[in-house]
Amino acid sequence: MTEPDLAWTRWRPAAITAITPLTPRVKSFRLAVDFAHAFRAGQHVDVRLTAEDGYQAQRSYSIASAPNESGTIELVIEGLDGGEVSGFFLEVAEVGDAIELRGPVGGSFAWGPEEGGPLLLVGGGSGVVPLLAMLRHRAHAAPEIPCALIYSVRGRAGAIALAELEARARDEPGFMLRLLTTREGAGRRIDAEVVAAVLAGLGPPARSFVCGANPFVGAAASLLLAAGLPASSIRTERFGG
User: What total of structural domains would you count in the chain?
Assistant: First the structure.
């Protein structure tokens, strides 16, 4: 009997190959790994930092890139007030630094073309990160699958990968973006009217993925259920810490 591959359970070194600011509080980090082609869009990795005195801190971060042959994955990390790990990445980390990671991790909050569509994605703030991986994977592997993203942010300046998302909405047939800014302009939040309008354009989704902070995920998932989507088709992930 073949032994299962448990490489994902072990802590392994990963070098930072590129750092790119995305918003005033968010940066993109490229990490050299040996599984860039072998994960599912939506999965995450655990990151561990060890201080000189032996103190360790770890956090989980979703992979933003799609599976590919580049030899790297992208993590998009938001700086949090008092965040030990995010503070290191946003204020200290440099290209060439090595960190420890474990993964890829996660099974239910992941999407592949074999699951079909339409595909509905709902993200709040940095909760858009794993949804970005799904969008990028769809564009490469199954662009014929209809997809819509409802993205809620405080303002446009804080929206992650907004230029990319708007370009995709403009140039990719079958992809629709609904951006909601809660503290800018009219101050629109996700509600039943927004969900109904998106579903009218998308059609009944085979899968819906909702990611963000706890209150956002709870409200958004309730709206999808109220719109008649089966609970079994809705998958949620909560960001925090």
Answer: 2
